[in-house]
Design brief:
Elements (H helix, E strand, L loop, with lengths): L4 H20 L9 E10 L2 E9 L5 E7 L4 H12 L9 E4 L4 H11 L8 E4 L5 H14 L8 H18 L11 H11 L4
Parallel strand pairs: 1-4, 4-5
Antiparallel strand pairs: 1-2, 2-3
Helix pairs in contact: 1-5, 2-3, 4-5
Amino acid sequence: MQVDHSTLNRWVLKYSPELDKRTRRYLRPARGSYWIDETYIKVKGKWKYLYRAVDPTGQSIDFMLSAKRDARAAKRFFRKVIQAPHAAPPYAMTVDKNPAYPAAFEQVRSEGIISKCCKLRQIRYLNNIVEQDHRFIKRVVNPGMGFGSFWTAKNTLAGFEAMNMIRKGQVRGVPKGDILGQARFVSSVFGLA
């Protein structure tokens, strides 16, 4: 079956967020401490920020695309990570030296979203787990030379992140490296198998 480029783009934009949403209920629980970092993604020729969080075993917890890299964006991301259904409350959050993180952390903690026992570790080189995890996303984003709109970037990245979680073996019953199992899982969540 021959599919033209515009049809394929429409499918990606339509089904990527849906794959992300449907995959989340099958994810293994993330626990322990969280490593949080942001990386740069080019959208319409300008740099935007992809916030990402992983647990100590390298499991992706959540992600968020933001136009800005400030305390408001960090606060939104902290809330999103804590409220992820497959994530247990962390005992620590490790971030880099971005000055926005401490202010956002204190605001979220004062609102009671993060436990008073949770610590913020702002250590630049301790964040290597999440820095290494950025490689997969960069590997699939960079050849495309950026995105045409923020909406397109957000939807496409949802699909990239969902497939990354599936590929890493985060889905219950689908081991890492089982390509046929991954294909069966995607087919089953869309009711094709």
